């Protein structure tokens, strides 16, 4: 409150754009993201523009569909596509009329010492701007971060996973959704998987995640059809053979990157947030939520240190970086779990056990997915508690096994 | 053979320089590096310019000194300072008179598609140069690598360890070395350590490795003296109180970075070698050796694929990157071992056990340090064999323990 805020965006104003360029994976909005939106009074507005979902829907090879709820009744994840950005910009512009919005401004360079930024403006000329604090929220390939990389003792890593992704569309059927909406449809196939998410126009966007080397093996329409008949037979009539042939070969598979860095700040002049600080793979649906929660955490520290940037920025790095790191690692973990375990009996049994224990001891045993998605438990804390719970469960199993053996008269080991 | 080679170096020609700018940690030349020099016929020349060492010399707190040999008799590591670069350049210039040397040329940019490079030349003007293959050997902060970072699916990480380093000098005493030469002197103190290496001019260069936060705690001459009296009392008369006071505060502690990346090549036009591809912390003395061995490996693959860059470059990444990665991880592992275990009884016992077993079964049990330093066993292979040896040793211990228990009449567990 009381800061003069100017926003620079390299893309055009998508509120006015006729064709939206670029693409984005579906955005999942859950508790952490909603809390941040609530802080600025636009939660309901944004939620109303998405599609709420209660459960995953697992598609087996034989076409059987089985739902797995995300959490308890009433716990939903709201899915948006980039449409969400339009209403987000609109909502912010309405709620904060003094915020200056500048589109088509590409950051060329900035100085940590002076806070001076140079932009390539919409008229093709260079433009200077000065700020007391630069907040870099410019995504996984952040231009702001380049200046960080020139400084000593900046830790940075970018890792591409072996999987790429490719998008397909399931059109509406008789004017309605072709599958049950309000579900995240998943076709888990161990080394690869497909997911489908509903859009407001009653289409579904399917995303196929697969190792690049497998994408490269599919070069003809026949190979593609054979691959889908073998692995996703129930999806072929939904997508349509012609559309499948056309869309699959239209664009190459896109890469997925995992970025970590530390510190998040330079001097008292610049701080990174969102994907610029911690891009993660999309398999836990927490990318946007982690970014939005960055804002809450930063806000809390601003209050705590009376808005003194020299104290706020190092504290923000200290507090937040380990949480984002833990979340990014969990997303990598889920990258394996989602495509391979989600249809195994063990996974379903563990889900059942976790949920039952949570019902019996709601404060002691909380499923990891619930802590991450439906609470604001610190990410690192959630991981530590989950490891503790797993240890307890293993010990319980040992005790039960021991007890059963005694009952059966086996000698103690 | 048969290639026209042009070398561009951003620094001035140190053969003509009066004052050598910049600084470098001591360079350890062992088997892998020597083999590479042998390939181009300059091994003996370079070796004769360094100081051979057979053992470490551990300095305890009470001033006691205990030697630990590197390997068997005759296995030596040759230490150089940047002087070595001078004779290296001279030797290469003599052996390959057709190689064009360009100093004071700073790489600004290059194109993976055309092989065109732009340099900032010594006259202040930009200069273009074209090559069929660009070999980037421009160190941990490689300018060549910047172009790699702009491309998709390039994995990269830079990690700064919490320790920094600072150099001090032990002058000659009565015209001779003040401590025994031909030893790597080590003062291991758990969370930090000092080492000292002899130079040809009969001085020793001491390097203090310590967490930055500990460096920051020492701000006055009295604090410094107290710190040295407590931790390195025997070194104070060697360095001299005045020189210590002067040199310690002259420059801030320097950072140490660990860089990994993959792939090492772009298209068929550029390949990274040495620190540009895999900068490692200096605690295993393998940085230069790994870089020189890169050349041997590249050369072997060039022969294997008839110098077809399109086949050579991907194969070089595939073969070499896992080895460099394994070595860089070992160097990090030694970073802990060298400052904490080197003076523990367990460490000395393990060294004794390893060396004894190596003597009994010279082909089956080879100490890790020996495999890394005195053979050309692939780095990754050495790590795998070491893990296997450790497993065998643990099993042997279990068997011996079991046997002893049986002898003692204990019930079997």
UniProtKB/TrEMBL annotation, chains A, B:
Lineage, top-rank taxon, reads: Eukaryota
One GO BP on record is: pyridine nucleotide biosynthetic process
Q: Which cofactor does it need?
A: FAD
List the Pfam families: FAD_binding_3
Q: What are the UniProt keywords, alphabetically?
A: FAD, Flavoprotein, Monooxygenase, NADP, Oxidoreductase, Pyridine nucleotide biosynthesis
Gene Ontology cellular component terms for the protein in this record: mitochondrial outer membrane
Give GO terms: molecular function aspect only: FAD binding; kynurenine 3-monooxygenase activity
Database matches in InterPro entries: FAD-bd (IPR002938), FAD/NAD-bd_sf (IPR036188)
Q: Which residues form the FAD-binding domain?
A: 35-296
List the protein's name.
FAD-binding domain-containing protein
Species whose genome carries this gene: Pygocentrus nattereri
Underlying gene: KMO
């Amino acid at each position: 409150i009381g800061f003069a805020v100017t926003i620079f965006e390299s893309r055009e104003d998508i509120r006015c754009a006729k064709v939206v360029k670029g693409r984005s994976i579906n955005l999942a909005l859950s508790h952490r993201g909603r809390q941040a939106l609530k802080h600025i009074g636009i939660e309901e507005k944004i939620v109303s523009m998405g599609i709420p979902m209660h459960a995953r829907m697992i598609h087996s090879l034989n076409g059987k569909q089985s739902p797995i709820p995300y959490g308890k009744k009433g716990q939903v994840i709201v899915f948006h596509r980039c449409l969400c950005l339009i209403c987000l910009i609109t909502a912010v512009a309405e709620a904060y009329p003094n915020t200056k919005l500048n589109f088509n401004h590409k950051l060329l360079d900035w100085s940590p010492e002076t806070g001076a930024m140079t932009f390539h403006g919409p008229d093709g000329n260079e433009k200077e701007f000065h700020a007391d604090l630069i907040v870099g929220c410019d995504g996984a390939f952040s231009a702001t971060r380049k200046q960080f990389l020139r400084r000593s003792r900046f830790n940075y890593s970018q890792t591409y996973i072996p999987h790429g992704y490719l998008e397909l569309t399931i059109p509406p059927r008789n004017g309605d959704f072709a599958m049950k909406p309000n579900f995240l449809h998943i076709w888990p196939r161990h080394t690869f998987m497909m997911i489908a998410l509903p859009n407001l126009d009653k289409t579904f966007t399917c995303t196929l995640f697969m190792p690049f080397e497998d994408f490269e093996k599919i070069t003809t329409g026949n190979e593609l059809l054979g691959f889908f008949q073998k692995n996703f037979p129930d999806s072929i009539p939904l997508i349509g053979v012609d559309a499948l042939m056309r869309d699959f070969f239209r664009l190459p598979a896109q890469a997925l990157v995992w970025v970590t860095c530390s510190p998040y700040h330079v001097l008292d002049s610049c701080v990174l947030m969102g994907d610029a600080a911690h891009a993660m793979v999309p398999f836990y649906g927490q990318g946007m939520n982690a970014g939005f929660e960055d804002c809450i955490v930063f806000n809390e520290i601003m209050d705590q240190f009376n808005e003194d940037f020299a104290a706020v920025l190092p504290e923000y790095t200290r507090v937040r970086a380990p949480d984002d790191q833990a979340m990014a690692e969990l997303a990598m973990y889920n990258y394996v779990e989602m495509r391979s375990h989600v249809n195994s009996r063990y996974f379903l049994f563990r889900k059942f056990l976790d949920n039952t224990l949570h019902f019996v001891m709601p404060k002691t045993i909380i499923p990891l997915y619930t802590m991450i998605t439906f609470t604001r438990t610190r990410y690192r804390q959630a991981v530590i508690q989950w490891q503790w719970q797993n240890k307890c469960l293993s010990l319980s199993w040992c005790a039960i096994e021991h007890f059963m053996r005694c009952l059966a008269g086996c000698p103690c080991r």
